[in-house]
Every structure is written in C-alpha cells, then in structure tokens.
Specification:
Distance between the termini: 29 Å
Mean pLDDT: 81
Largest sheet: none
Oligomer: single chain
Number of strands: 0
Number of domains: 1
Radius of gyration: 13 Å
Structural class: mainly alpha
Length: 56
C-alpha cells in the first residue's frame, strides 16, 4: 500500500463485528489518531503462513 499513512496495521479478526469492536474500543480512544482509513481483502492471491489460521 502507498499513500500518506503514518502507520499500517494488519490484524486478523473473525468477522466485521469483531473488526468494528476493535476499532471502536481500542483505536478510537487514542487521542493522537486523527483518522482511520480501512481496506479489506476479500480474496486470496497468495497463501502464506504470516498470520495464524483461525478458521477452526
């Protein structure tokens, strides 16, 4: 990804509700964060083992 971002966070959540809960409870309270831009991946281009398999 390119652009004007200061930080790029990648994390794994079980569903969109879990993502929303993380953003609202963990990121929004941080006063130094002025904006949050979100991108989602809906497909697999290359399967790697960078993140743990949480599918069950």
């Amino acid at each position: 990804m390119t652009g004007l971002s200061d930080y790029l966070l990648r994390f794994v959540v079980s569903d969109l509700e879990d993502y929303e809960r993380f953003v609202r409870k963990r990121l929004h309270p941080i006063g130094a964060i002025s904006s949050i831009d979100t991108s989602f991946v809906y497909g697999v281009v290359k399967r790697t083992h960078v993140f743990p398999d949480v599918s069950g």
